[in-house]
Design brief:
- With about 110 residues, the chain is an alpha/beta fold.
- It is about 25% helix and about 50% strand.
- It contains 3 helices and 6 strands.
């Protein structure tokens, strides 16, 4: 959550924000989406991965990381004026010999 503090003063400074294998360490992503939207220039893009989950919004796994549902990401995107322009199911990394199922998103600030 330190990145949220660093992002507070940023207003329309970036055309791209990325977060690969990062957001799974935070459950509630509402402030993240809000801060990223503020930091992006008009039509800027937010590209990120999440560990895929079937829970209502997000769920803490026994690994100590969070899974986020597709519906939750769609809800946050809509609420924060992002358009989902790309999403893909991916294998994020291997853990104990098995791939962690994840989702890659590309959002554009509306």
């Amino acid at each position: 959550e330190d990145y949220l503090v660093a992002m507070k003063p940023m207003k329309k400074e970036y055309d791209l924000v990325t977060a690969s294998d990062v957001l799974n360490y935070q459950g509630d992503l509402a402030e993240t989406f809000f801060r990223v939207h503020d930091a992006l220039e008009d039509e800027g893009e937010f590209i990120f991965t999440i560990e895929a989950g079937k829970s209502k919004d997000f769920m803490l796994r026994n690994t100590g990381r969070f899974q986020h549902s597709e519906e939750y990401i769609q809800k946050l995107a809509h609420k924060n004026n992002f358009t989902i322009i790309y999403d893909e199911d991916i294998d994020l990394r291997k853990e104990k010999g098995n791939f962690i199922k994840a989702k890659l998103y590309r959002l554009k600030k509306s």
